[in-house]
Amino acid sequence: MKNHRETSVLAVVALIIAVAAIFGTNVVSAEKTTGGQQRSFVSTYELRVPANPDSKGETRLWMPLPQSDEHQSIRKLSIESPVAHQVSKEHEYGNSYAVFTPTAAETSAGYSATLRFEVTRREYARDLKTPPPARPAKEAMLKRYLEPDKMVPLNATLAELARTQTEGVTEPMEKARRIYNYVASTMRYDKSGEGWGRGDAMWACDSKRGNCTEFHSVLIGMMRSSGIPARFEIGFPLPESKAEGDISGYHCWAEFYFVGIGWVPVDASEASKNPAKREYFFGAIDAERVMFTYGRDIRLSAEQKGEPLDYFIYPYAESNGQAIKGLQTHFAFRDLEPPREVGTGH
Length: 346
What we know:
Blueprint: H1 2-23, E1 36-49, E2 59-65, E3 72-80, E4 85-89, E5 96-100, H2 104-109, E6 111-122, E7 124-125, H3 139-144, H4 156-165, H5 172-186, E8 188-189, H6 201-207, E9 209-210, H7 212-225, E10 230-237, E11 244-247, E12 251-258, E13 262-266, H8 268-273, E14 284-285, E15 289-294, E16 316-319, E17 322-323, E18 328-335, E19 340-342
Parallel strand pairs: 8-9
Antiparallel strand pairs: 1-6, 1-18, 1-19, 2-5, 2-16, 3-6, 4-5, 7-14, 10-12, 10-15, 11-18, 12-13, 16-17
Helix pairs in contact: 4-7, 5-7, 6-7
């Protein structure tokens, strides 16, 4: 069964790459933002590691860092901490992080770190009717985005759900739209009780509720089961009605890939909360966010001894190979200028 799945994935990727070669010569990436709204703000990410006088062995802490891309420009990034640290990247997704290596005395007493940066985030809206040709994605990444994650198994449940919702549809973009509409209209944004927040696609299929991780785990699982590469993205949201303040938690969304079009953004949980914007969030995401990292099942470096991270938006620390609990965080932002419309760019 495993060999059959691997063969199927490789066949799909080979077809995607072969067609991409036709489109991929001397073209401009279609993923670049082409106007719309942008928002510039300064963000702070504060961390406190509690005192651990009983710690034995080596201690490390990893903090995610945002990166510039076509949709956001990161400036003046700084890290303030008494603890020695350096910036690096994990190899699978290319996510950036700072890794801290406290001394035994610093671990015993506890320590803090503060990340500050400025960002201009641009609305990311794709023209799906007449898209410009896109630069082909790397074969290895397309293969990864067709494979299962620990919390998103590509099993019979998700495959049958995808088949049922796309039955009779042959056009790939319409298949993606049917999957998106199903998730946005069927699931409820509901953080009551327990079980939510892990991005567990099977739990979400049964409960039909959760936060953004559940929405996009189901969506990504259905997309991949339909042969459509799809990836998970996570960062922090900004309230539209405030110019500064605290940020209570993360937000995540997804993208799927088609040859000749490139990556297409979707935000099914925001569409569920705002039904009037359901059409908008298929192919677009607003500027009210900053993106930090891609992917699930993340192993940051060889020094990480624990299990791969479900996703990477909060700091992660280990002492003697065991995860450190009780890390305290605080996130805040302040607009540098009022959100504004921009003309055609890039």
